[in-house]
Structures are given as C-alpha cells and as structure tokens.
C-alpha cells in the first residue's frame, strides 16, 4: 500500500469509530485526540480495527506511534507492506 | 459440545451491548436469554393492541448531537451508531414536588439553578458549591465511593428539606440501597439526571433494543431466546461453561453474566453470605393508564414528576403494607419534544410508580393478588392526583406490574430493579473467567447498562 492508501484506510477507521465527526478535515500533523477528542476506549478501537482489517498487531509499547495521522502512516507503512 | 469465545447471560441492554462489541471484533459469541423476548429490566410488550414499555420512563444521560464527552457519546461511538439512530426527543421539563415546594428542571441546568434560587434563596451559593464538587468528583476514586450521601450533602446544603428534594429523584432513578445512597452512585446519577438530562425515542425502548439486536445479529452473534441458564460450571475456581434449563452444555472461554451478583453466585452453586446479604430490597409497582386525550389537554405538560408528601423522603421497603405511597414517580411519555413528523403518540399515557415489597406481594394467593392489584392501582392513582390533574375520567385502559411480575420476567431476586446493594465495579466475580455486567456491575439505567456491557466486553473479552 502507498502512504496515500494507508492514509485513506486510517481515515476510514476513524470515520467508523467517530461517525459524527468530519474525518475528512483531519490535519496530518495534529494529534488525533486534539481533533477528535478520542478517549482511551476509542484509541483502543483504532488498534483493534487495524487487527481486524489488516491483521496487524500493534504491541502496547508502540501505541505512542499512533498519535497523529502522519506518525500512524509512517509506523504502518513498512508493516502493511510486509504482507 | 458447542464452544464460544464468550457466553453472555441475559439479552438486556448490557448483554446486547457486550455482545455487539465481542461480535464486532470477530469473537464467537452467544447470548442466552431465558425469556421469550429481549430487554431484561427494560423490555416492552403489547397488550390489547397497545404498546407498553416495561421500565423506561426516560433515557437519562441525554447530551445533544455533536457532544464528544459523556456516556451517550461514548456508547454511540463504541457501538457504531449515529446519534440520530436513537431518535431521542428531549423532555419538556420535570419536577420534584414536596409539600409547598417545587423544583422544576430540564436538560438545561439553568432552570434548576433558578428554581433553587427561587425556592431556597439562602441556599443558592451552597447549591453552586455542590455543583462544583460534583463536576470535579472522580467516579473512579474508590476511597470516596462508600460515603453516605445524606451526611455529605448536609455538610454542603444546610436546609434539610432541600437535601431531601435533591435526593428524591436521584434515589428513585437508581439507588439499590435502602435509606441512604453511596456517594459514588449519587454522583453518577446526579450527573445523568441534572447535568445531562432526559430524552425518549418516539417508539420507546423497543427502538433501542431493535437496533442493538439487529447490529448484534448482522455481526454474526448468536442470540438464543427461551434458553435459560440453570448452572454455571466451575472447575477449580474457573468458570468453564453453562448448563441450560434443558440440560444442554455449552462451554466458553469467558462468561459475562447480567443476571445479577447474587443470582450469578447461585448459578455457580455458591453460598457466600457476604454476597447474599447484599441482595436488593427495593421493588416497585407501576400503574400505566391509557387516556383518550393528551395529558397536556388536562393541563399537565411536565415529563416526569417525583413527588413526596412530607418534608422527609423515605426510601425503604414497606414492612406493614404492600406498597408505600408517600412518594412516587409520575411519568408522561407524551410530554417529550418529539419531531413533528412522528405525530402524537397513539394514546395519552400516565405511569405511576410506587415502592412495593416483594415478599408481601409474593405471599398472596392468586385471588388475593388480583384484588390487591386492583386496590393498589386505585390507591396509586389517588396518591398521584394529589400532584397532577385528575385523569381518571379519561382512562380507556390500564395495566399494572408488581414486584412479582418483575421477578417472573427478569429472575432478579426480590424483583429488585436496581439490583444488589453492593456493586462490582471491576466486573470481576469471585470465579475466574466469570464477569458481571449490567445493573450489578454498577451502572444503572438504559445508557448506564449499555456502557457497562461495553466496558466489561472490552476489558475481559477483547483484551
């Protein structure tokens, strides 16, 4: 997957988790929680959606890598393309 | 033998919500419900061509569309519902009525503020202090949880009657204990009633239940009605599966029970007096009258009235009569601000709830029970019309439930609507792989139960 495709996939996950938010307007370098006010339960859903959709296991120590769109894409790119 | 990742006992709000979470993340999950229908303590039925809700007066914890925080927003996100799907219409206003005093409140806190200032001008500063304390209160700080609310409240509010007026609706909507309330529970309930608010779907509770079941089934979850669990199998302190009423065995990695703490312990064949003595004592009768007019045509436009006929609010099981009518709740489902596209509800409806004693109702013979129902229905109405216009000439149909009705359909000991007096916030039972969700986990009401199911499934099925 290209970084743009990964970004779309994450946007889709966020739209699923926060259906009343406008995820199209997310800015890549601002933390998700400042734009979407995700709580810890929602954050865990990002991790579980990645597992469900792409069979990617994100270990707990890597959670800080998923704070913003740009860091998430950077983190996922090599892992998505292993498969 | 069938094996599941998770078995959920009870298809009420919490069980269905837990089931959705588990099924959404591809767990093999089965909900077992003894009744022939869903809903548990918040169910619905049809009688003589009229739709009735069982428990619902109001969906508490109402927050407007777009709100990011609070239990409603959280559960919608977690279950992947859009805000509009629950079709929530806000209340007109509600009121606490004591002799010579009335405090109205709505989903806008300003109304309650101005009412306190009007009725208790010397207490308004204290009331503001109370609000600050409650907003800052941390639900999860267990060291404060068991404090008795009456005393805590009296240290802030110096007028004893105002203390009672605040306690009345809060206890009515979720206090399992008699006489006093745990502070933690009080804070949760106060917020859900006064800082958030009341709403109702036009179709009532069945709309929410239908959405939950549809989602659960679409995700591949199995829902088995008329499948009562008679036993939870425990080996060396670990739950391994269940035995159904017909003897069928099913095994699972995790079992979530919404049957109640004491009831679940009994399913395990355990007798632990420290748990048994927490069984709830608060049960109710409810009289539902259908009217040939809108209640507002009689001059009644309040959504819910919490009344109490003396300066002291008595929250206790009656010992020398079947019911206690000194206090009660009058709910009018017509008095919500429904979208005009729905038109009016089919009938006017007045629901009266009063405190009742399970043991005394349960000891009646069938003929005594029938005449007691007729008698106490009339007495409940007589009690209520001290506080609302007399609607009796407009009645076209009535129905009533009693503590034994609640017991019969929910299997909750004593017909205790708010469950056990001690809550299990961690959800962990005394048995490994067996978890409690729903009323006895600690969150009551429709929104509370759904949040409970989500939290317990997240923590013990998905992690």
Description:
- The complex is a heterodimer of chains A (83) and B (463).
- Chain A is an all-alpha fold.
- Chain A has a single domain (3-80), classed as ACP-like (Non-ribosomal Peptide Synthetase Peptidyl Carrier Protein, Chain A, Orthogonal Bundle), CATH 1.10.1200.10.
- Chain A has helices spanning 3-17, 32-36, 40-54, 69-80.
- In chain A, α1 crosses α3 and α1 (3-17) packs across α4.
- The radius of gyration of chain A is 12 Å and the shape is globular.
- The N and C termini of chain A lie close together (10 Å).
- The mean pLDDT of chain A is 89.
- With 463 residues, chain B is of the alpha/beta class.
- Chain B folds into three domains: 2-85 and 204-278 and 418-460, FAD/NAD(P)-binding domain (3-Layer(bba) Sandwich), CATH 3.50.50; 92-196, no CATH class; 281-410.
- Chain B is built from 14 helices and 18 strands.
- Chain B has helices spanning 13-24, 71-79, 109-119, 124-136, 149-156, 160-172, 183-196, 205-218, 261-267, 273-276, 358-362, 366-384, 403-410, 445-460, and strands spanning 2-9, 29-32, 44-47, 50-53, 88-90, 94-98, 101-105, 199-201, 222-224, 229-235, 238-244, 249-257, 283-291, 304-308, 323-331, 348-356, 395-401, 434-436.
- In chain B, a hairpin with a 2-residue loop joins β6 and β7.
- The longest helix of chain B is centred in the C-terminal third of the chain and has 19 residues, at 366-384.
- Classes of the chains: A mainly alpha (83), B alpha/beta (463).
- The A-B interface holds A 16-20, 36-37, 39, 41-42, 44-45, 48, 51-52 and B 25-26, 65-66, 68-69, 74, 76-78, 80-83, 454-455, 458, 462.
Lay out the secondary structure:
The complex is a heterodimer of chains A (83) and B (463).
Chain A lengths: L2 H15 L14 H5 L3 H15 L14 H12 L3
Chain B lengths: L1 E8 L3 H12 L4 E4 L11 E4 L2 E4 L17 H9 L8 E3 L3 E5 L2 E5 L3 H11 L4 H13 L12 H8 L3 H13 L10 H14 L2 E3 L3 H14 L3 E3 L4 E7 L2 E7 L4 E9 L3 H7 L5 H4 L6 E9 L12 E5 L14 E9 L16 E9 L1 H5 L3 H19 L10 E7 L1 H8 L23 E3 L8 H16 L3
Parallel strand pairs in B: 1-2, 1-12, 2-9, 6-14, 12-18
Antiparallel strand pairs in B: 3-4, 5-8, 6-7, 10-11, 11-12, 13-16, 13-17, 14-15, 15-16
Helix pairs in contact in B: 1-8, 1-14, 2-14, 6-7
């Amino acid at each position: 997957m290209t970084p743009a495709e990964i970004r779309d996939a994450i946007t889709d996950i966020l739209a699923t988790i926060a259906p009343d938010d406008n995820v199209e307007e997310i800015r890549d370098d601002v933390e998700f929680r400042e734009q979407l006010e995700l709580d810890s339960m929602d954050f865990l859903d990002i991790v579980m959606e990645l597992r469900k959709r792409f069979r990617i296991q994100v270990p707990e120590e890597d959670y800080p890598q998923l704070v913003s769109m740009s860091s998430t894409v950077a983190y996922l790119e090599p892992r998505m393309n292993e498969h | 033998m069938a094996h599941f990742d998770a078995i959920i006992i009870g298809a009420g709000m919490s069980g269905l919500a837990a089931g959705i979470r588990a099924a959404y993340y591809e767990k093999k999950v089965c909900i077992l419900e003894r009744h022939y229908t869903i809903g548990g303590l918040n169910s619905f039925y049809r009688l003589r061509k009229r739709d009735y809700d069982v428990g619902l007066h109001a969906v508490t914890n109402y927050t407007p569309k777009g709100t990011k925080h609070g239990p409603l927003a959280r559960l919608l996100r977690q279950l992947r519902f859009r805000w509009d799907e629950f079709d929530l219409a806000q209340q007109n206003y509600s009121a606490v009525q004591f002799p010579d005093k009335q405090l109205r409140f709505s989903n806008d806190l300003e109304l309650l503020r101005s009412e306190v200032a009007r009725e208790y001008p010397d207490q308004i500063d204290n009331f503001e202090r109370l609000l600050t304390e409650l907003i800052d209160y941390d639900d999860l700080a267990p060291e404060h949880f068991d404090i008795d609310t009456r005393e805590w409240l009296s240290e802030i509010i110096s007028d004893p009657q105002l203390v009672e007026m605040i306690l009345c609706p809060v206890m009515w909507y979720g206090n399992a204990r008699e006489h006093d309330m745990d502070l933690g529970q009080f804070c949760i309930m106060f917020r859900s009633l006064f800082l958030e608010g009341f709403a109702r779907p036009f179709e009532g509770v069945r709309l929410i239940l239908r959405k939950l079941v549809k989602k659960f089934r679409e995700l591949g979850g199995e829902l088995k009605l008329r499948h009562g669990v008679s036993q939870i199998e425990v080996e060396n302190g670990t739950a391994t599966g269940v035995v159904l009423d017909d003897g069928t065995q099913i095994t699972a990695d995790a079992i979530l029970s919404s049957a109640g703490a004491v009831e679940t312990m009994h399913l395990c064949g355990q007798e632990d007096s420290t748990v048994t003595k927490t069984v709830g004592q608060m049960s109710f009768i409810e009289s539902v009258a259908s009217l040939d007019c809108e209640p507002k045509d009689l001059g009644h436009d309040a959504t819910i009235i919490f009344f109490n006929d003396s300066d002291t609010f008595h929250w206790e099981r009656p010992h020398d009569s079947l019911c206690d009518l000194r206090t009660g709740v009058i709910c009018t489902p017509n008095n919500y601000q429904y979208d005009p596209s729905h038109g009016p509800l089919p009938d006017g409806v007045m629901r009266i709830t009063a405190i009742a004693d399970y043991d005394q109702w349960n000891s009646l013979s069938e003929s005594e029970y029938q005449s007691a129902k007729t008698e106490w229905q009339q007495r409940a109405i007589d009690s209520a019309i001290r506080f609302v216009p007399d609607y009796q000439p407009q009645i076209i149909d009535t129905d009533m439930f009693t503590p034994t009705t609640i017991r019969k359909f929910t299997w909750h000991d004593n017909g205790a609507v708010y469950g056990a007096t001690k809550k299990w916030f961690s959800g962990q039972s005394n048995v490994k792989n067996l978890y409690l969700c729903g009323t006895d986990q600690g969150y009551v009401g429709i929104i509370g139960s759904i949040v409970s199911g989500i939290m317990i499934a997240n923590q013990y099925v998905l992690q």
